[in-house]
Structure formats: structure tokens, C-alpha cells
Design a protein that fits this description.
This protein is an alpha/beta fold and 502 residues long. The protein folds into 3 domains: 2-49 and 149-322, Rossmann fold (3-Layer(aba) Sandwich), CATH 3.40.50.1100; 53-142, Rossmann fold; 326-501, Biosynthetic Threonine Deaminase, domain 3. Helices cover 42% and strands 21% of the residues. It is built from 20 helices and 18 strands. The chain has helices at residues 2-10, 27-33, 51-60, 64-69, 78-90, 104-112, 124-138, 149-165, 181-193, 209-216, 239-248, 257-271, 277-292, 314-324, 341-349, 379-390, 402-406, 435-441, 475-485, 496-501, and strands spanning 23-25, 36-41, 71-74, 94-98, 116-119, 141-142, 172-176, 198-204, 251-255, 299-304, 328-336, 354-360, 366-374, 395-397, 422-430, 448-455, 461-469, 489-491. Helix 3 (51-60) packs parallel to helix 5 (78-90) and helix 12 (257-271) packs across helix 14. The termini are far apart.
């Protein structure tokens, strides 16, 4: 069967529609990881994904009668675009069943290529079940996204190109896994010709169907899968891809959402291309594997498999990338609700770069402040935690708390019966290390801070929203104080949004 894959790969029809993608050196990642990192740029293809290879190869080998009836596929998006693109080239009808969670960008891509979109279920497996029903009902020809020898062979041409482009030593190739078609094809080719090269499969921790199946020595069907990396959200891998992976894949590495976001940022810094989460999966796995195994001076290749990213998701990716890169730590610090405590806390921050400082008075005795800080490495997290505890501030590390990072950091606040005589002001100040501490040190301790929100957005100016409790008899003195600060400011006490939510 292995020789059969070699023949299928060498005689594949992918180059009717695909050009050889580049294998590029990643100098920044190489220097940081002390290894030679290369990126196989499958995001450069016409549908911005490797899936075009397998889809077209399968359809180009259909009989005229099969093509005439039309084709159907189930896909989270990239295979769908590959099938629609191929159908248009081959002059046949294409019906694509996609999960309801599929990004709009991929749905629009399928329709742009002439595909008929049917949305069904929350994952690939749900869409697949519905596609099987439609296949029988409308007598269409099914084009499987991964568990088909022609599809596997089409994806295997990536391995053929890698060996052609880099005939020198290669220590490992990192391959993202959903259903397993890509890694089966690459492994089947590479291991026949260069068995010394390690093939490492990369999956998300919450969608590790292949890794868990190989470990169990049987195909498992996961009850639920994570949807952030929607292109690899597969509950059960293919029967044939499982067989090939079990024979040829050397190891697996699992990564989380933050690591994927960090990898998207890494590849953007190298190439100025924005990968989708599944497209950055191999890079995330490469980084983790190299660090865990302390690899040095090795040649490591990551397949950047796709770039069909919904633009709106970039907000989330940008937020989480610094955590994944160990550039931001998030804490809740507790302190007595008493005058002077706030200043003592800010003094303990020193000149560290603050990324977020979020507080709302809510208890008469104890205050809880949500703090984000820039760090240089993961080792800084424990050091900071110990530092704050020594300074007398009980500390809760939220850096790995999913709910805190996704929701709570934006929800600190609310109405408070304790915020009597509150004045709300918005300030801007030049953004530089220590600027927040200097701003806070200029605040008069005679007026209690009852609300505070600051978030570093990477701009030249920091933006702060401050609530202070000012008795009516102090209004004039407070206005003079605000004007004397010298910062651009706006009174927001009468803003209807403040009245509605805070």
C-alpha cells in the first residue's frame, strides 16, 4: 500500500490547478528557538489552503458519468472551497454541507466559486452525516475531505515538494491534523524516501482525535471538539488516515488556543500573512516541541496550511497572542478598601509596563483589582506573584484561566451602592513605561477612587476612565485639581452609558 501511495502522489493531477508553494526560512523564529525554522506556505494557493490539492486530484480521477451527476462534500470550509473551485474548473455541480459554526469568509468563498452551500450541525462530523443523506437522495458523488486515497495522495504532493525544495538534512516536519489526510499523505511519501525525518502531528488539546486514537490503538469518536481551530474540529479521524498515521507518524504534540494565537502572530511577523487558527497549528506545535525537547541547531519545517481567517477574529487573536507568547500575565490583586491602599499597590508595580488595570468599588472592606502586566518569559509569572504577596497583596494568577481571559477582564465593574458622589472622568496620557504609576501618583488622596479602567492598546497614548468620590462641597477644588493635572480630560458623569451600566 505504501508503494501505491508513492505512485499515486507521483502521478497526481494537482498541478493542473496548483503551483509549487514556497518553502521559506523564518529568521525571527529561528533566532528565538535556536533552530532553523522553515515554513511550507500552503496559504499561498488560490483558495488559501492545501485542500485544493486533494479535492482536485480526487475529482480529476472521477469518471465522466460521476462528474456529470455532480459532487457533494462535507467540510468546515477549506475542503469546501477546494471542491467548489475544482468543480468550476471541471464543469460540474458542487453541493457543500458545512457546519453552522463555519466562518462567513469560508461560506462566501465557496459561493464565489459556484458551490451550493447547505449549513448543518456544529462540527464537521455533523455536516458529514447530513451530506451522506443528500448524497443518496440526489445521487451525487461524494468527495471525502480526508479519508480517500486520491485525496491523501493529493495532499502528499506537499511532502514531494518539500524534499525537492530542501534536499539537505531535515530533522522534523510538523503537520496539522484534523481528519488526517494531510499528515497521511506527507508521511506516506516522506517515510518511503527519507525515513530519518520525523513526522510530528499537531492537534489542539480539545480536538485531539488522532493522537488519542493512536494511543488507544483504535479510532475514537470524541463527544465534543473545540471550535477555535475550526479547520481541524473533527470528532473522528478517517479509517485509512488512522492506518497510515499509526504506521508512519513519529509523535504528536498538543497545543492550546493561546499558543495558536501566538503562532499566528509569529507567522505574521515573518511573512506579513495572517493564518487561520488551523493554518498556524503546525507552527504552534513546532515551538512547543522544540522547547520541550530542548532542540538546538535542527532543521524544522512547519506546514502553514491555510489563511481563511475571518477578519473579526483578529481582535481575539491579538488579545490572546501575548499570553501565548508569554508576553502578558494576568492577576487579581486583593487589598484593603482603605485610603492609600490604591497608591501602595501602584507603587508595588514600579516601572513595569501595565497592559490592563481594572477596578470597581464593590465591598466596604476589601478591593479586588484586575491587573495585566507585560512579561519577558513564563518564569516572570511566579516571580511577580511572589512579589505581590511579599508586598501584602493576596494574589490570584489568572494567566491560564480561560473564563477570566475571555470574559471577566471585560466585565469588571457594575453599579455600586458604595460609589456615592462619584465623578467620572476620561483622561489621556503619553504611553511609556511607568506612565500609569506617575498618573496615579498625581491623584489627590483626599478623593477616593471608586472606578478605574485602563487597557494598553499599543497606541502612543493611554486611555483611562476614572471614578472619584467627591463630596458636593469639594466640587470647585476638584475641578481645579483636574485642570492642574495637565492631561487631556473629559467629564463623563452625565454620559448615558455611564448611567446605564455603571
Amino acid at each position: 500500500m505504501s508503494n501505491d501511495y508513492l505512485k499515486r502522489i507521483l502521478t497526481s493531477r494537482v498541478y493542473d490547478v496548483v503551483r509549487e508553494t514556497s518553502l521559506e526560512h523564518a529568521p525571527l523564529a529561528s533566532a528565538r528557538l535556536n533552530n532553523r525554522i522553515l515554513l511550507k506556505r500552503e496559504d499561498q494557493l488560490d483558495v488559501f489552503s492545501f485542500k485544493l490539492r486533494g479535492a482536485y486530484n480526487k475529482m480529476a480521477h472521477l469518471t465522466p458519468a460521476e462528474l456529470k451527476r455532480g459532487v457533494i462534500a462535507a467540510s468546515a470550509g477549506n475542503h469546501a472551497q477546494g471542491v467548489a473551485y475544482s468543480a468550476k474548473r471541471l464543469g460540474t455541480r458542487a453541493v457543500i454541507v458545512m457546519p453552522e459554526t463555519t466562518p462567513q469568509l469560508k461560506i462566501d468563498g465557496v459561493r464565489r466559486h459556484g458551490g451550493e452551500v447547505v449549513l448543518s450541525g456544529e462540527s464537521y462530523s455533523d455536516a458529514y452525516a447530513h451530506a451522506q443523506e443528500l448524497e443518496k437522495k440526489e445521487k451525487l458523488t461524494f468527495v471525502h475531505p480526508f479519508d480517500d486515497p486520491y485525496v491523501i495522495a493529493g495532499q502528499g504532493t506537499i511532502g514531494m515538494e518539500i524534499l525537492h525544495q530542501h534536499p539537505g538534512p531535515i530533522d522534523a516536519i510538523f503537520v496539522p491534523i484534523g481528519g488526517g489526510g494531510l499528515i497521511a499523505g506527507v508521511a506516506a511519501y516522506i517515510k518511503q524516501l527519507r525515513p530519518e525525518i520525523k513526522i510530528i502531528g499537531v492537534q489542539t488539546e480539545d480536538s485531539a482525535a488522532m493522537a488519542r486514537s493512536v494511543k488507544a490503538n483504535r479510532r475514537l469518536n470524541l463527544t465534543d471538539v473545540g471550535l477555535f481551530s475550526d479547520g481541524t474540529a473533527v470528532k473522528q479521524v478517517g479509517q485509512e488516515t488512522f492506518r497510515v498515521a499509526r504506521e508512519y507518524v513519529d509523535d504528536f504534540v498538543l497545543v492550546d488556543t493561546d499558543a495558536i494565537c501566538a503562532a499566528i502572530k509569529d507567522v505574521f511577523q515573518e511573512t506579513r500573512s495572517v493564518l487561520e487558527p488551523a493554518g498556524a497549528l503546525a507552527m504552534a506545535g513546532l515551538k512547543r516541541y522544540a522547547q520541550e525537547h530542548k532542540l538546538k541547531n535542527k532543521t524544522l519545517i512547519a506546514i502553514t496550511s491555510g489563511a481563511n481567517m475571518n477578519f473579526d477574529r483578529l481582535r481575539f487573536v491579538a488579545e490572546r497572542a501575548d499570553v501565548g507568547l508569554a508576553r502578558e500575565a494576568v492577576f487579581v490583586l486583593s487589598l484593603p478598601e482603605a485610603r492609600g491602599s490604591f497608591r501602595r499597590l501602584t507603587e508595588s508595580l514600579g516601572d513595569r509596563s501595565v497592559t490592563e488595570f481594572n477596578y470597581r468599588i464593590s465591598d466596604a472592606k476589601e478591593a479586588h483589582v484586575f491587573v495585566g502586566l507585560q512579561i519577558q518569559s513564563e518564569a516572570d509569572i511566579a516571580k511577580l506573584e511572589n512579589h505581590f504577596v511579599r508586598k501584602g497583596f493576596p494574589t490570584l494568577n489568572l494567566t491560564d484561566n480561560e473564563m477570566a481571559k475571555t470574559h471577566i477582564r471585560y466585565m469588571v465593574g457594575g453599579r455600586s451602592p458604595l460609589a456615592e458622589h462619584e465623578e467620572l472622568y476620561r483622561f489621556e496620557f503619553p504611553e511609556r513605561p511607568g506612565a500609569l504609576r506617575r498618573f496615579l501618583s498625581s491623584m489627590n488622596p483626599d478623593w477616593n477612587i471608586s472606578l478605574f479602567h485602563y487597557r494598553n492598546q499599543g497606541d502612543d497614548y493611554g486611555r483611562i476612565l476614572v471614578g472619584l468620590q467627591v463630596p458636593p462641597e469639594d466640587k470647585n477644588a476638584f475641578k481645579e485639581f483636574v485642570n492642574a493635572l495637565g492631561y487631556p480630560h473629559w467629564r463623563e458623569t452625565n454620559n448615558p452609558v455611564y448611567k446605564m451600566f455603571l
